[in-house]
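User: Could you walk me through two proteins back to back? I'd like the raw sequence and the structure tokens for each, with a short line separating them so I can tell where one ends and the next begins.

Assistant: Of course. Protein one, sequence then structure:
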Amino acid sequence: MPIIEDQLFRRIKKQTGQAIGDFNLIEEGDRIAVGISGGKDSYTLLHILDSLRRRAPIRYELVAVNVDPGFPGYRKDHIEAHLREHGFTYHLESTDCSAIIDAKLRPGSSYCAFCARLRRGVLYTVADRLGCNKLALGHHLDDFIETLLLNQFYIGTLAAMSPRLLADNGRHTVIRPLVYVEEARIVEFSERNAFPIVCCSCPVVGAADQKRQRMKQLISELAEENPQLRRSLIGALGNVQPRHLMDPRLTPFAPLGKRPDMV
């Protein structure tokens, strides 16, 4: 079934294009690995990037990459059928992440976070093999602001995500083109197009990320009072005023000397 190119599609496409321009996410000659998990976000990202590519003034390539985490019941065949139906270039990578997690996860550590790091490492390896210089991930606006609040509430850092980030290995650039797109719009877009949603089938799905769910709930509650809350929070990430923070790495707090009224 072809993608429905209605007003919602055009809105998401416009917001994605704006993010690409604002943060210089895609450049001439890029070969981009697009992480496809089988969720609404990654399907949306792939289809929007492909639509933008068709009319872009520059040339770039997309390769959809799926990492099978190895959990029983994971239906990567549904993902492959969708990619094939829409004519995408794709690669499916089988892994044994589930066994590695069972063997290596430390008590008290986050199951989801550890799994995400493992899968990210696999994506980098596959990107290398496929000759891709960038990795596109489907994190949306709500992911950014939830991470901002999580870091403040539970870790004590003023940090979120970056729409463009050089990976620790120094070889890959991670891009997040959906930074301006709210999750609700992605849910609606996914439902209208009947994307074949595939659950990761991990044994703790739905129970391991309670803190993030609490942030999601908090944002929804506050947004009832202030409908512009999400836009305000995402805007704050690009409107940092170091002079009004307490980090000495940003503002050196050197001695000012004695003031006359202190003598």
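----
Protein two, same layout:
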Amino acid sequence: MSQAQDNEHGGPAVPQTRTARHRRIVDILNRQPVRSQSQLAKLLADDGLSVTQATLSRDLDELGAVKIRNTGGELIYAVPSEGGFRTPQAPLGESAKEERMRRLSGELLISAEASANLVVLRTPPGAAQFLASAIDQAELQAILGTIAGDDTLMLISRDPAGGQALADHLLRLAQKES
């Protein structure tokens, strides 16, 4: 049985499974430009996931990863986007992620209510997972995680009393879009 290992950055333990490794590869490729398999192997090792070049090559193939040219002209690995759009894209820059979250908050956020380190957001039916995905991709340091249903999502703040500040921030983002 595989064991979970803490990464050197103090993040959550990552189990030594194929699924966890694939998720971590996708997260890395969506977060930063990766030019080579050796660079990706080092980034995975930094997170406590040791892989051989053969395993990494197979993983990239299974994920549908390809090399594309980013806006700076460099060839980098990219994986197809989730949710149907299958053309691989270079990772969004920070401003693009924030802009997407702001736009979707303005279009989809109906209400935000906080309690301690939790925030409950309401959306139209069917929109909660879409908004949660945009929030996750924005990688806000204040957010530990999101859970989404059909029309409701819950954000967990890293700060034990940070729910209200987080709710206020999201409401301000939504109002800027309106």
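Residues 11 and 47 are 8 Å apart (CA to CA).

Let me know if you want the two compared in more detail.
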